[in-house]
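Before the break, one more example. Copy the sequence into your notebook; we will annotate it together after we see the structure.
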Amino acid sequence: MNEFLNREFLGNPLQDYFIVVGVVLLVIFIKRILSKWMASFSFKFIKHWSPQLQKADFVNLLVKPLEYLLVFVAFMLTMNRLRFPPQLNFNVYRKIKTVTLNGASVEQVSALTIHEMLTTLLELTVSLCFIWILLRLIDFVALVLEAKADLTEDKTDNQFVVFFKDFFKAIVMIFGALIVIRVLFGQTIVEKLIAGLGIGAAALALAAKESIENLIGSFIIFSDKPFRVGDTVKVDSYQGTVEKIGLRSTRLRTLEKTYVTVPNKKMVDSVLDNLSLRTQQRAAVRVEVAADTSVEKIQKVLKDIHQFLGNHKNVEPDFTVNLNDFTKDSYVIQVIYLTYILDGARYNALREDVNLAIMRFMEQYGVKMATKIEVVNDPSQQ
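Here is what the structure looks like once it is written out:
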C-alpha cells in the first residue's frame, strides 16, 4: 500500500494527489456548513448595530460568496503540496521584442507558461470572491440603515441609503477593476495607470463634465433637500412625483403615468416648484353671465356666494367674490378662494361643491350664462 502511495506520477507521489483531492472534496461537501457558521459568527459582532435585523438576512447575503472563497482557498493551499509537472509547463504565449541595450539591438523573449496562467487564474478567482463579499457587506449595511430609516416618516432617509449604496458599490468596483488589472498584467501597469491619472485627469474631467455635474447635483439635493422622494414637483415642462434620486438623475412619475428621467444638474439649476410643500391650494372661478341681467340680480348672486364661502369650513376667510369685468356681451363674476385641503380628491370635491352652489344661486335668481362658463384653476393643480 505504501509502495503504491509513494509511486510518483508527473513528478509527485500519488499520496499528495489523494490529499489534495480529499481536502478539496471535503471542503466542497461542508462548504455550506462552514460558510453559514462563519457568517453566523460574524453576525455576533455586528448585531448590536440593528437589533431588529434578522440573522438570516446577513447569512443569506454572505453564504454564497463564502462558499466559493472556501473552495478556492482550500484548493490554493493544498496545491502547495504539489510540484507542477515540468512536462505540462509548456508555453501558452510567446512574445519576442527588440530592445536597445548599450547601443546594440537585443531580442528579448517573454513567455507565459501554463503554470503561470493557472496561478494567475486562481489569484483572479480569489480576488473576485473578496470583491463579491465586499459588495454583499455593502448590501447588508444598506439593510441596517434601511431598517433604521423605516422608523422615521421621512422617505428621504430611505433614498439616501439607496444613493450611497450605489455610490460605495461603484467605488468597490473601481478598486476591484484595479485589482484585476494588477493580477492579469502586473503591478507596473497599475502604477502607470495611477500615474497617468494625474496627466489624464483634466481630459477625463472634461469628457465626463456632465456626469460629474450630475453627481455633484445629487449631493446638493441630499444636503439642501429642495425635494424628497414622494414629493410632487414641477421643473421646466415636467411635473410628477419623485420616485427615485440616483447618482446621475432623478426619476419622476408624471400625471400621465410616464417615467421621466431628469438629470440632477437640471433639478438643481432650474427653477423647481415643490407642490408638496405648499400650505394652501388656490382655486379661481370665472363666470360670464348674460349682458341683459339686472344689477340687482347680480348683487344677490354675489351676496349669496360670499355668504356661502364665508360659512364653508374648508374655505379660508381671505376669499374674493366680485364683479370683475364686463363686456358688450357679458358680465364677468370672479370667485377666488384658498383652502388647506391638499389632497387631490378632496380638493376636487370642494371645487365641485363651490361650483354647484354658484349654479344654484344663478338658477334661483334667473341669471343666465352668456355663452359659456369658464373655470380657471391654478396651473399648479393640473
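The domain at 210-277 is CATH 2.30.30.60 (SH3 type barrels.). The longest strand covers residues 91-101. Try to locate both features in your own notes.
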